[in-house]
Amino acid sequence: MYYTTYQSPFGEIILTANDKGLTALAFTEGEQPINIDTKHHKNNTYFLEVITQLQQYFSHQRTTFDLPLAPQGTPFQQKVWQTLQTISFGDTQSYAWLAKKISNEKAVRAVGSANGKNPIALIIPCHRVIGSNNKLTGYAGGLVLKAKLLTHENASFIALK
Question: Which residue of the set 25, 99, 126, 147 is catalytic?
């Protein structure tokens, strides 16, 4: 298990990975910080491609990520996270859309919970899920950060007051 930090324009990010790929990406100011323990070893070179792609994203040179991902979660969570990756840069979708997309229209709350447990924020774009009314809803990094990310992508949403 490896980790490193990256200073993004929107705050410090902690990255973790194993030999299969990226396991977590979280903003340190978020509501769900990553827990680094003695199993994790600092390794900046392991994350060179991740950091390159993040720099390209933040400088408007990249709209998709092409990285090996290894998020840990239940089969249901994995299905939700894979579906999240189909939401394009600059687009937003609702929790109801996400539930319908995984063929489980009644699972809107479960989809919301899985979305909130996404360990690889930004790259698995859970920030692109908003309420059916186009308003911002929960985000592990906080609604201010969610608004900044969506604004960065020129996405349409109803701003915070």
Answer: 126
126 is catalytic: yes
pTM listed for this prediction: 0.91
Using alpha carbons, select from 77, 80, 121 the residue that is nearest to residue 100: 80
Note the Cα 154 to chain centre separation in Å: 17
Looking at residue 112, what DSSP letter applies?
Answer: H
- At 54-112, the pLDDT tens digits run 999 999 999 999 999 999 999 999 999 999 999 999 999 999 999 999 999 899 999 99
Query: Per the structure block, which two tokens stand in for 55?
Result: 């720099």
Establish how many alpha carbons lie within 13 A of residue 131's alpha carbon, considering only the half-sphere containing its beta carbon: 10
Interval 115-136: pLDDT, tens: 999 999 999 999 999 988 888 8
In angstroms, what CA-CA distances link 20 with 52, 64, 70?
A: 19, 20, 6
